[in-house]
């Protein structure tokens, strides 16, 4: 336990110092390599860091003022058996380190796997059945190809993506817009348990942070930053999913969009992305072709390894006629 205190307490003190945003903290760590070295640095050394101000330097030199609050936060995390990844930890996600403002500390429940490439699937909370089915299908297929599916665990497309990945026994990561003491929405508590068993539920916030609206756009940079690409399944014109897509583009990651009905308000955001140059997704092969360097060459199922063909049930005449008149969208008469 003392080892954890010695390792992580300086990180939590650094996080509590007011006025230090994540960009500045990244620059400080790059220059000094550890929080302890930052605390011991002189005025001239700290002044050389881009974006740091006199009041920031004063706050850093008064860092012990924030020690009690940091101890409280760290103590709660350790008492619950949760895990921590600091910015210099080998298991901190490598792609996330590359964004301009990575969280200095991540708290998570489950397991972080640095070997598997990540892909995010995001979209509307008020998704249509078409959107939910599409998100689940894409997540399932991509998880079978070795991708870890990343999303935000809210209702709608996020939940469908996590469930689709889990259905194929794949890995998935949930990024919360709250602390780990506030599972949001509450009805996803069973999903939380399944995700932590096959991946991790992650937060950059203190455990007791409630799911405030302004925190979700902030967590979106983590979803985009973790991922080799971001898939937007359904999104309105003003949508947090479009923020994730914009950030993915800024991070030089691939952006994919699933087209929908021209009459659907939940497809207006995805159509806007397509007009701006996002990759059109008709099925998972459109994604796999763009991210082929990350795709496992091994077949993902024992049937594929044996070369067996999947058999479909034979339909009689009546069902064949019914099937011919079906299309992907529900009809009302």
Give me the secondary-structure topology.
Blueprint: H1 2-16, H2 22-32, H3 35-40, H4 43-47, H5 54-61, H6 67-79, E1 83-86, H7 94-97, E2 105-110, E3 118-122, H8 129-144, E4 148-151, H9 157-167, E5 172-175, H10 189-198, E6 200-203, H11 215-226, E7 229-232, H12 240-250, E8 254-257, H13 268-275, E9 279-280, H14 284-290, H15 302-306, H16 317-324
Parallel strand pairs: 3-4, 3-7, 4-5, 5-6, 7-8, 8-9
Antiparallel strand pairs: 1-2, 2-6
Describe this structure in words.
The radius of gyration is 22 Å and the shape is elongated. It starts with a helix and ends in a 9-residue tail after the last helix. Helix content is 45%, strand content 11%. Helix 1 (2-16) packs across helix 6, helix 8 (129-144) packs parallel to helix 9 and helix 9 crosses helix 10 (189-198). It has a nine-stranded mixed sheet, with helices on both faces. 41% of the residues are buried. It has 16 helices and nine strands. The protein has 333 residues and is an alpha/beta fold. Mean pLDDT is 90; it is low at 298-312. It has helices at 2-16, 22-32, 35-40, 43-47, 54-61, 67-79, 94-97, 129-144, 157-167, 189-198, 215-226, 240-250, 268-275, 284-290, 302-306, 317-324; strands at residues 83-86, 105-110, 118-122, 148-151, 172-175, 200-203, 229-232, 254-257, 279-280.
Outline of the structure:
By secondary structure, the protein is α/β, with parallel strands linked by helices. It has 16 helices and nine strands.
């Amino acid at each position: 336990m003392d080892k954890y205190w010695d390792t992580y307490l300086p990180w939590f003190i650094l996080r509590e110092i007011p006025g230090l945003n994540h960009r500045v903290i990244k620059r400080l760590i790059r220059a000094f390599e550890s929080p302890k070295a930052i605390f011991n640095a002189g005025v001239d050394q700290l002044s050389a860091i881009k974006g740091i101000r006199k009041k920031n330097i004063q706050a850093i030199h008064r860092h012990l003022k924030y020690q009690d609050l940091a101890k409280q936060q760290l103590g709660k995390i350790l008492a619950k058996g949760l895990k921590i990844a600091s910015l210099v930890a080998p298991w901190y996600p490598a792609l996330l380190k590359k964004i301009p403002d990575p969280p200095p500390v991540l708290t998570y429940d489950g397991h972080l796997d640095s070997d598997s490439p990540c892909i995010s699937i995001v979209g509307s909370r008020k998704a249509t059945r078409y959107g939910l089915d599409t998100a689940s299908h894409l997540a399932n297929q991509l998880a079978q190809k070795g991708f870890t599916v990343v999303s935000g665990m809210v209702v709608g497309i996020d939940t469908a993506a996590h469930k689709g990945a889990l259905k194929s026994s794949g890995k998935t990561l949930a990024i919360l817009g709250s602390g780990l003491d506030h599972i949001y929405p509450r009805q996803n508590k069973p999903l939380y348990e399944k995700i932590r068993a096959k991946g991790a539920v992650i937060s950059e916030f203190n455990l007791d942070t409630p799911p405030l609206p302004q925190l979700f756009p902030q967590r979106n940079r983590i979803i985009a930053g973790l991922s080799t690409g971001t898939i937007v399944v359904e999104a309105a014109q003003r949508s947090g999913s479009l923020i994730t897509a914009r950030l993915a583009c800024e991070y030089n990651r691939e952006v994919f969009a699933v087209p929908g009905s021209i009459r659907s308000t939940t497809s207006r955001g995805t159509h806007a992305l397509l007009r701006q140059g996002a990759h059109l997704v008709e099925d998972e092969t459109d994604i796999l072709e763009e991210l082929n360097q990350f795709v496992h060459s091994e077949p993902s199922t024992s049937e594929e390894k044996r070369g067996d063909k999947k058999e479909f049930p034979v339909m009689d005449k009546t069902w064949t006629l019914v099937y011919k008149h079906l299309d992907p969208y529900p009809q009302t008469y």
